[in-house]
Amino acid sequence: MRLLARLLLGIAAIVVVCLALATALILRDTHARIGEATQASAARAARTLGALYWQELVWRDGLNRAELLPLPEWRTLATARVVSPGICVTFVPRAASPTAAPLPPLCSLAEEDFAPAPALFGALYARAYGAFPQAHRPVDARQDVGEIVAAADPGTALRLAWLEVALLVRTAALLALAIGLGVALLVARALLPVGAIIAAMRALEAGDYAGRVARPGGAELGQIARALDALAARLDRTQAARAALTRQLFQLQEDERRALARDLHDEFGQCLAATGALAGSIEAGAADRPDLAADARAIAAASRRMMASLREALVRLRSQDIDELGLEACLAGLVASRRAAVVRLETAGDLAAVPRPIAIGLYRIAQECLTNATRHGGARNVVMRVVAAADETVALSVEDDGGGDPARLAEGDGHGLLGMRERIAALGGSLAIGRAALGVRVAATIPLAAPAAMSA
């Protein structure tokens, strides 16, 4: 899950917890206020009813109090005014018969425009707080004439409590939405540099060490960007040093090959030529010795085979022919020397403009690709393409029909493939191994402005 989504979910969870706590506190406060309103309504109604008794006594000129009980006019507007909204009060006379029907209550209801509370809210409220409390207050007119019993009307009280909770929930929801949007905008703005940092890390993973991360505004992300830039610069220097060392090693290898080819040609080649000539001379002078003539012919045949092997070795070792003949002619000679498969060479662009170090690298890569295709892959037909493109790159591809698994070849760690990878990396190029129509396709792309062009 993305960081912004996690932050928003965390904020939402905190808001829900805070809202639940605030709802519980409001419900407790509402329940307490309903109890206080019940007590106050009972006290005020008792005082009002006591005053009514005294008023009746005065108006009736001291009539016996017993004749005033119960007072039928106690449910007056004056009494209703002292009862809090949502509270019902009932007068219970002391002189009333136990079997007498209770007097109807006087209720001061709230506004009826509001919708009733949901049933679930009422059930949860009742489970948390139980029934609404009652309040009892005696009515005193120089004797205990009865009591006022006050209690909250359940429907009205629940509706009032629900109105407060609903108002809180709506307010909190709007506030949470505003906070969430504000936090989302702030966090999204603060995390904008993260995309650039991730892109730079992916570039490092792909081997691009030249990119740098723009400095973000935050201190923490700025430190990460600076550390990433320092890492990229160090990797760039390390990779450049490694590539330079690899180019030097390949140059030393080419020098050693040229020296070895020269020694083989000058020493071993001359010895083989002399051996062949001497064997021919012995054969010509041994007309009367058939056994000696046969040995001379065997020596001459062995010399010819060794000379053919020497020529093949010299072809593999020599690279100075590129200076004399050019890359295209050397590749044509390489293709013509293959006997195990039919190899077709296709070229495009000006290969003569390819710098010598890159041309030598391409020649060695082509050698290894043809060896893999003909000797290890068992291919019968091979197509080699070399293209000097207009975008200052040269591309070499070799396709064969020998089957094979490109993925297995790409994951291989043989000396030939490893050397080919190192050579291409030293030239600043890239290697791709994929599937051809009937076999494997190996493609190398090298920029003509590779460092090797200036250092070899």
Sum up the structure in keywords:
456 residues, 3 domains, four-stranded antiparallel β-sheet, 13 helices, disordered C terminus
Can you walk through the features of this model?
With 456 residues, the chain is α+β, with helices and mostly antiparallel strands. It has 3 domains: 3-187, no CATH class; 212-260; 325-455, 2-Layer Sandwich (Heat Shock Protein 90). Helices cover 61% and strands 14% of the residues. It has helices spanning 3-59, 77-81, 119-129, 154-190, 192-205, 219-285, 290-317, 321-325, 327-336, 356-376, 406-411, 415-426, 452-455; strands at 87-93, 106-108, 134-140, 144-152, 342-348, 381-388, 393-400, 430-435, 440-447.
What is the distance, rounded to the nearest whole angstrom, between the alpha carbons of the first and last residues? 50 Å
Give the helix tally: 13
Indicate the low-confidence ranges by residue numbers. 452-456
- Written as H for each helix and E for each strand, in order along the chain, the element string is HHEEHEEHHHHHHEHEEHHEEH
Choose one word for the global shape. rod-shaped
Q: Beta-strand level of the residues, as a percent range?
A: 5-15%
Q: Structural class, please?
A: alpha+beta
Number of spatially distinct domains: 3
**How is the biggest beta sheet arranged?**
5 strands, mixed
- Average residue pLDDT: 79
